[in-house]
Amino acid sequence: MAGASLLTLLDDIATILDDVAAMSKVAARKTAGVLGDDLALNAQQVSGVASERELPVVFAVAMGSLRNKVILVPLAMLISAFIPWAITPLLMCGGLFLCYEGFEKVYHSMTHKQTHLVDDDTVVAKAQADIDDLGAYEKQKIKGAIRTDFVLSAEIIAISLGVAAHMDLMAQFLTLSVIAIVMTFGVYGLVAGIVKIDDLGLYLARRKPSGVGHKLGLTLVSAAPYLMKTLTFVGTIAMFMVGGGILTHGIHLVFEWIEHAQAVVTQINVVGGFLGLLTPSILNALFGVVAGGVVLLAIKGVSKIMPAKS
Fold first, then answer.
1. pLDDT at residue number 287
2. Nearest 5°: phi and psi at 62?
3. Of 29, 98, 292, 309, which has the fewest beta carbons less than 10 angstroms from its beta carbon?
4. Residue 200 contacts by C-beta under 8 Å, 6 or more apart in sequence?
């Protein structure tokens, strides 16, 4: 009997772990939009730090990110246990924030083109000149990155909680924990690689004056800034797609309209299947752009009214 009970327990554990693995994969796909932006933002956060201090700073921010998730995961579990009805509104708020953040980024880049003419190295040099203690400067960078990470981590946990909402509390906790750990080490491992890619390029270029290694090194050095721009661009698009997708899934009428549009497009000869796969993502992204624009207009409108009242 004891042996049978043990086998039953092991079978239950295996089933739970299998469910957790499946839900973790789904949650990871859902949070892809935050991941791209997370990579770009955190790589930018460590800019201006001395080359030999970049990896220690990334490690410090990663530890801060883990502390953020130690706070956020239990908080998410409390919400799931006592006020589960709040999961969908929180998801909608997270999706709306993603859309707003993406639209605000696009709006800022279009309306502040002149500020981009200022070299980033000049801004960093000025900031460092204003701070005598480089240790204090480094701490400021770490604190700022951890604050940014808290917002992004909250979005990741909220989206993951929505994916695992149908599971029992233990499975939810394991799913959120897996996502928290994988996302933290995945994101900051990639950030470490991104911030050191130019150093790797310099090392390869200087190692041999000619040959494949030299050319590869020069390519890495020249590609580093373009990589950052690409991450920012892809991350912004993904924010609209993921944020818009969260919103459309929460608005039944819009979700049905998108499904109908997908069904119509799929019937087109030859390219119907391919267009059918793209249609939901495109429409979700467009909805996200509109939602982000509406939120930005509302915020600007409120900001104009508030001073008038005072």
1. 95
2. -60, -40
3. 309
4. 217, 220
